Amino acid sequence: MTKLRAFSILLVFVVVTLILLPLQWAAVKLRLPARRSIPYRYHRFVCRLFGVRVSVLGSPIRGGGLMTANHTGWLDIPILSAVAPVSFVAKIEVAQWPFFGTLARLQRTIFIRRERGKALEDRDTIRRRLLEGDALVLFPEGTSSDGNRVLPFRSALLSAAELELGEDAAHHPRHASVQPVSIALVGLHGMPMGRENRPFYAWYGDMELVPHLWEALKSGPMDVIVEFHRPMTIDEAGGRKELAVRCEAAVRAGLTAALSGSKVEPQPVRDEALIEALNEAETEEAA
User: Which domain holds residue 217?
Assistant: First the structure.
């Protein structure tokens, strides 16, 4: 029965994805406002289809800014995309992945290259996207974990926070806002998820992606808490390394509290408010 359920979910996922691919491709190529809202609505559907019930604490930043989140694997992408219209910053190797690389490109992922000249171009791309009002997600751990802990944040991956986006009213450089975000896998089949169950959903180490995805689909519905912490800037933190330490501490505290059950009752994601905001933004951009 679990295999039949997983196969049905996978079939629906593939069909819906293939239908939406050309629509999103056209929206990106033509720079239509829907290029932001299609991935958001798509991933809300994917989470419901996969049985991922997402609850939210706090509010995502509006307008251009960076989000720094802990990373447990591929599941973070639909989870974060289902609660806010975001794009991601990822290593260039992701662009070469079959199928999933295509999805990443259509979500307007910024792929970071290691070459010195290319790295400067990538920073310019990030700055332009922030000025355009995009919310970009970074995973400063640099890799994924088992979902039970937060790995050290690499300050080098937060260099985008040093980008100057203009000047404020006092003629000081205005840097990007940075918002720590914690993602906690807390429930399985409506029951608390133990440490031994999180590897069914966390994708890390040398796990093969496709077999892991199949096992996750067979394992059944899960509950996730996403907490958006208070945004900060590199000026407030006192430097890039200090910013990485503060973001790591906020994410670790959020994850620990969620896994221990000490968080207040989270609120479910509400479609209406965010969809209305997206519609307003699309109308303004079209105008």
Answer: 2-286
